[in-house]
Amino acid sequence: MAAVCDICDKKPTFGNNRPWSRKITKRRFDPNIQRVRAVVNGTPKRINACTGCIKAGKVTR
Fold first, then answer.
1. Contact 10, 49 (CB under 8 A)
2. How far apart are CA 55 and CA 61, in angstroms?
3. In whole angstroms, what separates CA 57 from the centre of its chain?
């Protein structure tokens, strides 16, 4: 499943792991994406929405 929100287009961001040993490796920060049934144009449809959009009320369930 692609970690992209269908509402706000939030995507993964990338950064570095920085352990105590300072050995830097790449890592990926995924948004919290949930597969929810939402009403889109009057019909129920399954979409990928981040929890920020769900809490903000941008998704009508």
1. no
2. 12
3. 15
∠ CA 16-22-25, rounded to 5°: 30
d(CA 10, CA 58): 14
Q: Is 22 left (phi over 0), alpha (psi -120 to 50) or beta?
A: left
Closest CA to 53 of 36, 28, 29: 36
Q: Pairing relation of β-strands 25-29 and 33-40?
A: unpaired
Structure tokens at 6: 């269908």
What span, in angstroms and rounded, lies between the C-alpha atoms of 61 and 42? 11
pTM of the model: 0.82
- Tally of residues, the chain: 61
User: What pLDDT was estimated at residue 2?
Assistant: 79
Q: Which helix (H) or strand (E) holds 7?
A: none
